[in-house]
Design goal:
Helix content: 55-70%
Distance between the termini: 96 Å
Largest sheet: none
Shape: elongated
Order of helices and strands: HHHHH
Strand content: under 5%
Number of domains: 1
Number of strands: 0
Length: 159
């Protein structure tokens, strides 16, 4: 059917030929239809976000397991450089786990338990400590030039 086909106007389908259908003329019905459509879109978006959270969490678990397996299978093929790179990757994944878990904790996921991110609770606690210590340490460190300018102000130019 064509979009401009007159059948979409419901003409002649009702017994009362003079009255227009409510969805066409009643503002409250039109507003209700819009609200219902918006509610449906919100439910769809919430389901999509929930799936995305599960996918993200599953990806992190798989990456963590791969790095963990590579580190624990310390064979003759792993040189110190490779072990270092694995440790760096592990720290990056731990940082992601800490940040992601905090930011998506309010989003439910049907696929995985909310605490199944890969790292153990002790590793997560250590990662949280590092994350917050590093992010707040910069606030308390003096900036270069501040101490030297304070010292120059204390000196009397007449001396």
């Amino acid at each position: 059917l064509d979009v401009d086909d007159p059948i979409w106007q419901d003409a002649g389908l009702l017994e009362d030929e003079s009255a227009s259908p409510p969805w066409l003329t009643n503002d409250k019905v039109q507003s209700g239809i819009r609200a219902m459509l918006e509610s449906d879109r919100c439910k769809e978006e919430l389901a999509r976000i929930s799936r995305e959270r599960g996918i993200m969490q599953n990806w992190l678990r798989e990456e963590w397991a791969a790095v963990d397996m590579a580190q624990t299978s310390k064979g003759e093929y792993l040189c110190p450089g490779m072990l270092h790179q694995l440790q760096v990757r592990r720290e990056e994944l731990l940082q992601l786990a800490v940040i992601w878990r905090r930011r998506v904790s309010h989003i439910s996921s049907n696929e995985l338990p909310s605490d199944a991110w890969g790292p153990t609770d002790a590793e997560m606690a250590a990662g949280i400590h590092v994350e917050y210590t590093e992010s707040t340490a910069d606030q308390f460190l003096p900036r270069e030039g501040i101490l030297s300018s304070e010292n120059s102000d204390d000196e009397d130019p007449d001396d």
